[in-house]
Amino acid sequence: MTDTSTLQGDGAASAPTHLNGAFLPENSKLFWLALWTGALTIVTFGIYRFWARTRLRRYIWSAIMPGGDSFEYTGTGLEKFLGFLIALVVLAVYSGLLQVGLSFIGFNLWGAMSSEPSGPMDVLIQLGATYVTGLAVLPLIFFAQYRARRYMLSRTRWRGLRFAMDAAALGYAWRALLYFGVSLVTLGALMPLATFRLEKYMTDRMWYGDAGFEQEGQWSELYPAMKHLFIAVAVLLLGGVVVFFGQAVGLGGIIIFAGYLWLIFGFVYYQVESFKYLTAHKVLDGRIRFTSNASSGRVIGIFVLGLILIMILSFVFALFLGLLAGIFAVSIGGMDMNGYGSVMENFTGAGVLVGLAAVFGYLAFFVLIGALVTVVISAPILGHYVDTLRVKNAEQLEQIRQRAGDSIADADGFADALDIGGAF
Questions:
Q1: For residue range 101-113, what is the model confidence (pLDDT) as tens digits?
Q2: Within 10 Å of residue 48's Cβ, how many Cβ atoms?
Q3: Which pLDDT score is estimated for 10?
Q4: Which of 224, 178, 229, 226 is closest to 201 using CA atoms?
Q5: Are 269 and 231 in contact (CB under 8 A)?
Q6: What pTM did the predictor assign?
Q7: Are 183 and 214 in contact (CB under 8 A)?
Q8: CA 324 to CA 361: how far, in whole Å?
Q9: Can you say how many angstroms the Cα of residue 251 is from the centroid of all Cα atoms in its chain?
Q10: DSSP 266-295
Q11: Residues with pLDDT less than 70, the chain
Q12: Among 424, 420, 411, 422, CA closest to 140
């Protein structure tokens, strides 16, 4: 997409008044990059995944070219690996203290935390302890989300200027926990409040060079984005009424299934529409604004078509592996016994080799699926968001200067340890 420029009175072109996003990867190069980095991750028992994600990010970032200038990712696999080790230590200490605390409460206050519950109260106590253990990880997840975004911004450059984010992960974690509880108690009715306030908390602490971002707008303006979620809930309730009061299980089941599908669409619609609203109300340096024309239908279309393509290719690949395994087993089993011992030994050896081949085939299948998901689902969805993004008053970007870099000891190690932080 091209940039629009204004002309000065003497006919000379000034800086462009707006920039259009552009995502220009080479699918074949991206596929082979995802494939071989995935294979190395398997071979190294997962250790290489930090370097694999770094290489993918570098390529993806370089393909994002607003105004013709590509992004640059400066993170390294080593700092991600070291950050992951630090995060594991913190998680181990946190989990250990949590378990000690729960044991103390169980044995000293309730006195009923036995392996075999003796009554309904013991069951409730043990069930509650289980949920408390799960919910106790939430602060770390929210902490990791903030740190992951801060790390990626600190390792991202555009036009030679660094992005950055203030150190405020603890503040985000307790706020996210609070808003999560509010959304849960209100059965999702206040989800727009959580979405807006948490995004504002992060956006107001983001920088590009020495220019700060600001999130404007009102959280109540996100309610139109929830319309399909409300419709889905109504359809689900209708299905429940038909089943329990109308005694029409078949019809009720169909309605409930339709409600679940609508619910999935509703979540995607909410994500896309809330992104569009929040983007339209972001301001950089008080003057530079953004718009997005992302489409929820397009996002769903990319996912569905990509999923169908992956299923077809996976089926073909599985048939190919099965055919190879069959030929291999027959050829091994039919070998001359003179050099291979008895028939039993011959077939035993064949079984071992076939088993090893099956493991290799499974791992190859896993790597292939990961590469396909990257190329036909994750990257195209990211590309849609980038291609539909527009920067307004872009001439003001020329006034922004460099800012001191950020040093983050654990990189985005918490995000890696908890397996969050996005596809790339």
A1: 656 555 555 454 4
A2: 19
A3: 43
A4: 178
A5: no
A6: 0.82
A7: no
A8: 10
A9: 36
A10: HHHHHHHHHHHHHHHTEEETTTEEEEE---
A11: 1-15, 97-135, 325-326, 328-358, 405-424
A12: 420
